[in-house]
Each structure stands twice: as structure tokens, then as C-alpha cells.
User: Fold these one by one.
Assistant:
Number 1:
Amino acid sequence: MLELDIKGIRISSGEHAVLLGPDGSGKEELASYLALAYSGKVSLLRFRDSYGAAADKEYFHQLRWNHGMMDDDEPTGRERLMRSVSGCADQESAMAAFHKYTRLFGLEPVMDKPLITYSSGEMRKLRITRALLSSPEALVIEYPYIGLDPGTRDLLTNILEELSRTRTVVLVLSRADEIPDFMTHVVTVSGGLPVCKYSLEEYRRTFLPPEVVRFKGVTVRYGERTILRDLNWTVREGEHWALTGENGCGKSTLLSLVCADNPMAYACDISLFGRKRGTGESIWDIKRKIGYVSPEMHRAFRSTENGLGAVASGLTDTGASLSRMTPEQKEECLRWMEVFGITDLADVPFLRMDSAQQRICLVCRAFVKNPPLLILDEPLHGLDAANRVKVRGIIDDYCKEDPSRTLVMVTHYPEEFPSCIDHSLTLRKSL
């Protein structure tokens, strides 16, 4: 792989760097410097908005609102790439790259469609393919994730990781939380100059909030079926995550690994609250810091207690009896029941409640110990419109009240996510 010298800071062979700094720090200047200093060896791609740099001669045609102005001869993706192939000195290698990357990036189905019909993600992949036709030794990409939805961001990260195995990758980013795990170093930038080079782990340890959850290459299989494949995922203190994906993609499995309910967690590289699983912590040490509710938990919850007792069991994550509660604990449980508007259920046997009443009790149960990590799997499932609005507001208020509180929430209805959501992970079924 190509070694790069960024005005005195060296990126060695096998290293991949992020240029990181605030707006106006000169990150883009350094990217341009690399493209000029290593002309012919470095391809520079700029993604300053959803479709590309405004200077691109195709930019006008990428604006969807100009669709009605499209000419009959609007170029297709294939035509655009073939023009680039014809301009390469080694056309045979360029054609091989054309076939390789259109297949790798899943572009084959849209190759013969007009460029104006491409989505942001498709256009992003097409431009990366175009840059790779000349077989550059390094890729420098400005703001690769801007304008992309969570699923497309995940897919692009996988593509960039694949590319990093054969060439040096340098990314220009403004947000530290966008740094992919395959990057090895962070170079901070100020005044158009590199300031310091950190290893990725050193940078995260020094400048980012503590890790709450970390999955590293996690794979879960049951027999011949793969549920999760090589999953890398980091949740940091104070982040609020939306976990999405179709049925059967592994969301519940992922959450069971976090909540210490899945014994396969001990065979995986998983850390919780900065401590690797299997290094001496008990299940109860973990559960003490987590508030949790899920459809599976609801089905299995068969408490003989009343509503107050069901909520109180969240204090210890057991079926603890009301008789063992302190007056202070009872007061806290009743306070949370008042927040959720269910004080009238305090004396009602849990098993005599309807399903929606039970669900609100169990959601309330997740909050009762004021956990630093909330894991809410379909918390609004089965609730009427008024209760959905109320519970969503409670989740929002809880997370905003204390910046250190962390949330992971699952729902199949995007409108149910609270406004505090600032991160997302979309899972896909493994093939």
C-alpha cells in the first residue's frame, strides 16, 4: 500500500487515516494537497452534499427537481463509466475494475438507468467505482457519509473496508462518531495543517465518551443459520440509538447479547461498560445498569404480584416481593407509576390487566432504577395513540434530563422513535 506524507505526518503502508477537525480547519486543503503531491497515485472524491461537489459537470442533472428537464440522451451509469474507461491508459485493467466493482457494489441492476434516477447511495457508489477504474494506490474521500440514510451508510462502510484491504484509504470527516472501525489512525487538523496523529483506539479513549457497548467482529450462528455476521458496533455514553431491520435480521439476538441473556455472549468479543464479557462480572452486575423491555420479556413475565410489585421487580431484575421493598423504594416506584399515568394499576393483579396495561407496567419497570442504559425493544407495541405519545415523550425527557444516559431502541415504525435519537444501526439478514 502507498505510504503518504501529510505535511510531516506519515501514514505508513497498511494504515488508514481520518482527517478530523472543525469547520474551517483546513481538512479539504490537506485532501487537495495529497491529490497534487501524489498525482496519478491518489484519487480524490468530494461528497459535499448528497450527490457530489457543485463543481461536477453532472451536478445539474443529479438534482431530482430537474427530472422533467431530462434530455432523451441523458447518460446512463454504464455510459458514464465507459467514457471513463476509454480515458484510461490501461483499458483492459479498467474494464476488469469496471466489472469487479459494479458487481461488488451491487450496481449491475442500475447500470442502464439514467443517472438522474440514481439514489444518493447509488451515485456515491458509482463515483467511487469511477475513481477506481484507474487503479489508484490510495483513495482520499471527503465526507463520504453526508446525505446517506443509516442503511446506506452501513453498506458504504463495508465497501470502504473491503477497499482498504488493497489500498490506502484517507477519509475527511467532521464528526468523530462517523469514524469506521477499520480506520487505524486519526489526524487532527487546524489552520490547514496536521496537528497530531493518534491511533484510533488512543483517540477514542482520549476524546470520546466512555464505551457502554462494544461488539468486535461478533458472529452468532445457530446450526447452519447465521444470525449476526462479523458485527462491529460501539455505543458510547450519552448516545441514543435506533436499531432497525426486517424481521429475522438479528435485532433481538443482539439485544440479548447486551443484556446478558444469551450465553453465546461469552464466546464473542463483547465489552459492556468498558469491561469485556467473561472477565469476572456476574449477570446481575450487568443487569443492575440496564433497564430493559421487549415483546419476549412480556410473553415470559408471569408475576403473581400486582402492578406495583411488577414495577418494583425492576429494581433488582427479579421477582422480588413487595415485602422486601424499603419505603424509599416503594415511593420511587409509585413516582414512576405516576409519571406513566398508571397509579390506578398499583393494586391490580398483573395477570388480570389487559395486554396494553401490562406493557406500560413493564416499560415503567425498565425506568424504575434510573438505569444508565435503557434498552427498549418495541416499547410502544400494542399501545393506543395517546399512550404512544406519552411514552415516547417520557423516553425523550429521561434521556435529555441526564446527558450520560444511553438509549438503544427498536421499533418497526420510524414515527415512534423519540426526538433524542442521534445514532442508528440497521441490521440485514445474513445470507
Number 2:
Amino acid sequence: MTNRIVHGGGITAAARQYGGRPEEWLDLSTGINPNPVSLPEIPVSAWHRLPDQHVQERARDAARGYYRSGDMLPLPVPGTQSVIQLLPRLAPGGGVAILSPTYGEYAGTFMLAGMQVRQVSAIAELTTDDRLVVVVNPNNPDGRTLPLEQLQELHDRQREQGGILVVDEAFGDTEPAASLAPFAASMPNLVIFRSFGKFFGLAGLRLGFVIAEAAILSRFEDWLGPWAVSGPALSIAASLMESDTIAIRKRILERHLALEAVLRRSHLDIAGGTALFALVADNRAEGIYTHLCRHRILVRKFDYARNWLRFGLAPDEEADRRLAMALESDDFRSVRPKI
């Protein structure tokens, strides 16, 4: 049995260890929009009835327009984590390669299924034995983004050897020009995962989308079973994806710039990130993490990179000041100095 991966968002556990009530904490440990959008009106029928075909069709059509996937209708799923769990069933045989370091659930899922997994640092390290390749683009946690041309070439290589390319674009909403979705119709061995909750700030909705050819989507549908996504979730997704999202994107970028300003003012080195988080590299990472927890602020640390911390966005200027005060406080001097 593999060790469970520790993710961001563990406020309850942090409060139990360091004190305070969960609602007193400032959670900067996730890559979720800290300002959830206003919920659109949800028809009573969405709560009353199982989601009928026309409800799903509206959400899929809205997603097609939002992701610019052309003739391909994205499939709504109950969070992208649900389909990550299904990937071992989709694997065509042979080995699995994951461009790493990245979201740990990919390697964990394949290993739990008893599959051979290679974690590579560059596409140049891939071999013909790697029949299923996973790329998170933009990457979590360092924000690495591969050019579309490179991903298209990788897909063509996979197709020639009967393999599959999985591209996770969970953090792609603020970088639509970096998405493969508009080209997916001509890439039959491609599977794209998209997250809904991160950009819209509605992670609790547990909703994602898969973009792939119809035969692959049909397999995911069969594996997930009927009514996998709730009617309210489909209704919310359709309304929001049909709306103008420019203001959401603008607010996220404003919050990101504010976060970077606080980190730089505290002389922390920003090693990467996306619009929804910043990655800090610092040899004092463990001490900084503990110091912030004592101030009831949670960030994300990594067991595989002890000098990394990921900072999510604060919701407003008051929270910016709270983070800045913690990083500029007198007791911050007690944090072990850089080596």
C-alpha cells in the first residue's frame, strides 16, 4: 500500500497541531481562486430530478465554447481526480512516464495499480516503452509550461507507437493560449483534463471536464456510471461558462501580483508558479512553514523538495497585510537562516 499524498487545504489538521479554530486560519495552501464567483440561479428541477440528457448537453456545449474545443464536446466528470483514478484502465500496456515533479496523484494511482512508472524531468528522456505519458501544463507546482508545438510533436510520437498523451490543464484557465483544446480534434491519442473549481473558486462543487475523441470519452462514461455529475453542478457550470469571465481573470491576476509583492518585500525567492500560486525556493522552508502556522497561516510544503513552499492567493488586501506582518514580525528572525 502506498503512502497517502498530503495535499493543500488541510486546515483542520493544522489547527489541531498549532492551535486556533479552522475559521481563524488564512489558507494559502491551495491553488484555488480565493474569491469564489457568485452562484447563478439554479432551477429547482436541478435539485429535484436526476440530471437528464438536455442538462448535460447544455453544460457540454458551454464547455466546448469556453475551452474552444471545436467539434469535440468535453465530458463533465465529478472532479478531475475521479478520472485520474481511472487512467490505469486506459493505459495501452507498457510503461507510464510522468513529466516530474508534478501533481503526486498521477504516480500514486499508477503505482497502486501495479504499473511501471518512470518520473522524468524532460521530454528528451522519454522512450518508446513509455506508452502513456502524463504532462501537467502549466505544471503544479513550478508553473513550467511547454510550447504547443512540443506537445503536438509528443502526441504524434505517442500515436505512432500506439500510445496515449495525457495533458492536465487544471491551471490553464488564465492561459488559454497555452491550451491544446483547440487542436484536440486532430489529435486522436490525446486526453485533456480541465478543472472547473480552481478558476471559478468553486472547488467544493467537484467538477472537471475531459476532452478526447468520442471512443475514449465513452469509456470514461461507462467507468463513471450514470449521473456521475449532479444537476446543480451541471447547471452552475453551464451558466458560468456561458458568461463573461474577463473580470474573474483580472481579479486573479491582481491578487497574484499582490502576493508576489509581499513575497519579494520579504526577500523570498520566487522560483515559479501560475496565476493561482507562487512557488518559493528557500533553504529555510521548514522553518518558514512552521512560523506561518504559528501565525495561523497555512502554505503548502513538499516532502520531495524540502526547500519549496507554495503560496496560494490571498483573498484581499487585508489578508496580504496579515501575511506581510507574519513575514516581517520579530519572531521571524528565529527562523533558521539560509545555508
Number 3:
Amino acid sequence: MKNKRLINWLCLSGIISIIFYLLHDIIGAMNYPGYNWMSQAVSDLTATDAPSFVISNGYVTVYKILNCLCCALLCILIKNENKKSLRLGIYLLSIMNFISAIGYALFPLSSSGYDGTLQSFIHVYIITIIVVLLSIISLILIAIGSFKSKYKLLGVLSIISLLLMFIGAVVSQNVPKEIFGIFERFSTYSAVIFTGILGIYGFNINTHK
């Protein structure tokens, strides 16, 4: 603890961001009459016409700020990491989080679900595809780099996160709509939680080498 610098402590913003993402989901649902988390996507809570838009968007904004702060600091801390794949993976995951934060803020769903508008099209078919592809590539690179370094546990957790992401993406499209929201959250929460895990990794990086 004595060797920790402010930049290490600030990396824990990744853990705190998880709390705000969870609050946007829970409190947002409480302010959305008739919302069913088991059948509806998380993004429905921040659709521009959703009753929960103001309060849910407030929590998710704090989440994005903390999440991006964690990613920016990680990019600074790993500049001397000798495993190129691990370093590149974290860079790409950080880019993914920034694209997600900015892209979804500029193009939120205009209505719950998919209503066919240009705004919703960009949200679902452009930003989401970019975010998913970057997530997959970055997690694979982080896993490869971690297994070649002393951070073996990080490699295991990145694989678990990747598997949950795949399960969520595939299963949510092939289950009854009554339980769509459960499996959709496998994908969304896996990325959110893994960034928090990276925050712990950043906290433990020795900056006094």
C-alpha cells in the first residue's frame, strides 16, 4: 500500500463504475412503470422516450466517466508492459469503452426495443457491432498476453468474460422473449465487470520500477 501512487488508487474508479452501472439498471427499472428486466434490454432504460431516461441516464453518465477514467489511467500505467499483446488488448478495450460511452450517448435508442429510426439503427447496428468486435479482439489479446506473463488469473477472467459475452449474444437471440433480458445482461455486464477487474490490475501495477 505504501508504494501506491495516486494513479494506482484512481484505477479503482473501475470498481466504483460497476456500482453506478448497477444503480442505473436497478433504480432505472424502479422508475419505469411496467419494465421487466427479465424480458427487456438494459438499454431500454435510457431510451429517449423511457420514463426512466433522466434518472437512469444520470447514473450511467457517472458510470461512463469513471469507466473512461480507469481506462485512460490503465493506458498510462501499461506503457512499459513488455507483453505486447496484453498492452494492445488493454488499449483496444479502452478504445471500445470510449466509443461505447460517446457513441451511445450521441445515439441512444429513440424508443424501447428497435423502432427502425436512423438513431436506433446507428445504436444497434453500427455502434454495437463496433463495440462487440473490439471487445472480442481485446479480450483475446489480453488473455494471450496474461498467460505469457505473471498475470495468469487475469487471463482466466478475460476468457470467462469472453465466454459470457458469447453466451449472452447467442442465447439471447434464441430464447423466448420473456427471458431475453436475462441473457442480454450476460453480455453487457461481462464487459462492465471486466473493466472493473482491470482497475484492480492497474491498482497493483508497480510504478516504482
